[in-house]
């Protein structure tokens, strides 16, 4: 199965090979809390940027290991780029996936504020 997501204005679109997650990470760090992110991590090979590469800007903070990618037109951050255990991953903001039923997805709290 494949699911798709986008920024608010539609300039940035992506797809992910795989099923929608049954649970997502809800982090309380200063960045995630302010933006209300609900994140799922997928191997970079399962992620395809369909359109909008030229519209993407980036933001790094704290340890500067995650490139938070956002649309320069509408400001929405649909995904981030990073590594887990030395492997490239994409952190998908599941709020940017229209078909995701947010009420049915379990939220796993992460104390990112303590990192």
Automatic annotation (TrEMBL):
All residue ranges annotated as the CENP-V/GFA domain in the record: 3-115
Listed Pfam families: GFA
Record keywords: Metal-binding, Zinc
Molecular-function annotations in GO: carbon-sulfur lyase activity; metal ion binding
Signal peptide: none
Alphabetical list of PANTHER family matching this protein: CENP-V_GFA DOMAIN-CONTAINING PROTEIN, CENTROMERE PROTEIN V
Family: Belongs to the Gfa family.
Protein name: GFA family protein
């Amino acid at each position: 199965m494949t699911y798709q997501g986008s920024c608010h204005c539609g300039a940035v679109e992506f797809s992910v090979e795989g099923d929608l997650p049954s649970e997502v990470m809800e982090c309380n760090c200063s960045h995630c809390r302010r933006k209300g992110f609900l994140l799922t991590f997928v191997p970079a090979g399962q992620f395809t940027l369909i359109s909008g590469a030229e519209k993407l800007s980036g933001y790094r903070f704290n340890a500067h290991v995650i490139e938070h990618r956002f649309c320069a037109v509408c400001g929405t951050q649909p995904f981030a780029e990073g590594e887990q255990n030395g492997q490239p991953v994409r952190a998908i903001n599941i709020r940017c996936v229209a078909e995701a039923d947010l009420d049915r997805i379990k939220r796993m709290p992460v104390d990112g504020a303590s990192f």
